[in-house]
User: Fold this.
Amino acid sequence: MMTALSLARRNLGDVWPNPAVGCILVRDGVVLGRGWTGRGGRPHAETEALRQAREAAAGATAYVTLEPCDHHGETPPCSQALIKAGIRRAVVAVEDPDPRVSGRGNERMVRAHIEVSIGVLADEARDLNEGFFLRCREQRPLFTLKSATTLDGRIATRTGESRWITGERARAMAHRLRAEHDAVLVGSGTAIADDPELTCRLPGLGKRSPVRIVADGRLRLPESAKLVKQAGDLPTWILTSSDASSEKRDKLVAAGVEVIDVMADEKGRMDATAMAKALGECGLTRVLIEGGGVLAASFLTADLVDRVAWFRSPKVFGGDARPVAAEFGITQVRDAPTFVRTGVYTFGDDTLETYRRTR
Assistant:
């Protein structure tokens, strides 16, 4: 099952709206087939493993990181495919929360006299597909807040300069995070100030660039921005208010940008909960928030930051520099968003700390 989970991670961030699943077929200690969810969700892991095993799958044990699907979509149900192949046993890490499945795949296999074991490495399997589980349960994706700061939590000097706070090795890891998420989200202030590309530029992973999203309630992003100029080749979305300039909207759409309406206040500020709902409706399961401070504060106060990836550089900018999160009115310690540290990693002089929110 550990191997099946490692297979599932191979296309993590590139399978939405589907979960990332791994499957291994074994008989008499010999691996007959391996599969993992393909780009865009096809082929399914079980289908690929069965294709490799062919007739040898009869009498085998299938190790699957998520309950096999039991509904007709672009392909027949994987539960039926496993039954038809004649497997003897299925070891399933965790039940699928999708209401179209939710126990039905396991039940179908049991009715076909296949021995089904559930719960092997269940926590690890849930962690891997937490974004998919959240979209099924709360109709929103998982949000990871990524920050690159100084020791005193600053993301830029008082003049706005931020290149580069961390070193090359840490920045490479940040690009890997982009590859492992469906989309990367920034605020309009960051998009205008930094004019980023928000792509994955690691060797061999250029095709794994996420959907680029800008939260821009007043459509301030200029048509000259790299994000707009590249929109014809790379998926680019803008979240904005429904009463934003129709003329600017038309120009952005003509450039290839997808404009998505989100409820906003009279100042064009969009509610994080509404943004999360809109992105969930688009099918996203994993979103990386890269800045800036206002956007970070919005998602923190809405209790929507599920994970944190905090890169820390051994520099100090001082109190007049720009903080990782804007003000959000915390007056008592007990009201602060709280996280549990899950890992510490070193990249040269820089440190990456990972956290998940407490439930």
User: Anything to note?
Assistant: The mean pLDDT is 93.
